[in-house]
Amino acid sequence: MNIKQYPSKLLDTAVFEFAKLPGIGQKTALRLVLHLLKKDKEEVEKFGNALIDMRNNIQFCNICHNIADAPICEICGDNTRDHTTICVVESVKEVLAIENTHLYRGVYHVLGGIISPMQGIGPADLNIDSLEKKASEGNVKEIIFALSATMEGDTTNFYIFRKINKLNLVFSTLARGVSVGDELEYIDEVTLGRSLVNRMEFKM
Amino acid sequence: MNIKQYPSKLLDTAVFEFAKLPGIGQKTALRLVLHLLKKDKEEVEKFGNALIDMRNNIQFCNICHNIADAPICEICGDNTRDHTTICVVESVKEVLAIENTHLYRGVYHVLGGIISPMQGIGPADLNIDSLEKKASEGNVKEIIFALSATMEGDTTNFYIFRKINKLNLVFSTLARGVSVGDELEYIDEVTLGRSLVNRMEFKM
Question: What is the pTM of this model?
Answer without folding.
Answer: 0.76
